[in-house]
Amino acid sequence: GSTYSSKVFRVTFFTLAASLTVPLLGVTVLLDCPIDPQPISLKEPPLLTGALEPNSKLRKAERLWENQLVGPESIANIGDVLFTGTADGKIIKIEDGEIQTIARIGHGSCGTPEDEPTCGRPLGIRVGPNNTLFVADAYYGLYEVNPGTGETKMLVSTKTLVEGQKLSFLNDLTVTRDGRKIYFTDSSSKWQRRDCLFLVMEGTDDGLLEYDTVTKEVKVLMVGLRFPNGVQLSPAEDFVLVQETTMARIRRYYVSGLMKGGADMFVENMPGLPDNIRLSSSGGYWVAMSAVRPNPGFSLLDFLSEKPWIKRMIFKLLSQETVTKFVPKYSLVVELSETGSYRRSFHDPNGVTVAYVSEAHEHNGYLYLGSFRSPFICRLNLQHV
């Protein structure tokens, strides 16, 4: 009798499952998918051992100006005065602990993804030789901002076609010491910043560009990068490092010397998806990870990378906001040596103190941690880690 009843149960279960799955599949086939993902081949993530050994050092950071600013993505300083761009389109100055808005590139209301294209979203921010700020606004373009007067000057508009391509998602920039050349990334000619999860999942490619402040020319230096993100000139200004977020790696492009115009791999198969990169006082680089690829552990990004059909199913049924909730909260910053080896790493498993790091900016013995989502800046005393 028991085998008969288990058989009945199995038949009933499979009939039920099929009766639910078939319409669901039918609906899924009919639904539009916003992305057209390409299979991406990643190596198995590196083991978190040695310099990458998990710790909780980021939890020693203090949260500053909590709930007084929103999404301070990138940080720059002139002396002890800090500057950042926030999710509500503002360029902000923090002096003696006081927050002041110095400029806005966009206009209108801010607060929802729908508002972003008019509100503006300042991302990468750098200080030029005349103590003006160079800012990459994701929607509007490349700007020079006078921090004293708040005057903004457009250098490159996103309305300008560059070699036939439109700029849809300006992201980060790095400036030569003489202020002549600005190297910047356009993360996508298809997706805007508010759709960056689509960009990560789709794996479309874009490039690294150069703006010459004297000739006013924009040149494309590299193409075929999957989600080009943070950029950093080397201390000798002979090459630019560019983070290729979707591929979990850093590429190097030579801007002077014998190798000029050539490119190679600087670091591949990183333990997370690299966001911004900045110089460290040791002559190396600080890299903030926007997401981790745990090993040992389960990496959702790696699991999905070669399965475009699963990505299609997911994005037919779920919004970007919903999918983001499945990405584990784990904050990670690594310090690389000048040759790209791992020097040390700071972790905050589960993102208890520091959630979502987009940049680590070193100033005066402290690491200031920017975040594209958190309502604060974190500060870590490097003497105490």
UniProtKB/TrEMBL annotation:
One of its GO terms (cellular component) is membrane. It is found in: Membrane. This is Adipocyte plasma membrane-associated protein. It comes from the Eukaryota. GO terms for molecular function: arylesterase activity. The chain crosses the membrane at residues 12-31. It comes from Pedionomus torquatus. Belongs to the strictosidine synthase family. Its main location: membrane. Residues 171-257 form the Strictosidine synthase conserved region domain. InterPro entries: 6-blade_b-propeller_TolB-like, Strictosidine_synth_cons-reg. It is a single-pass membrane protein. Keywords: Glycoprotein, Membrane, Transmembrane, Transmembrane helix.
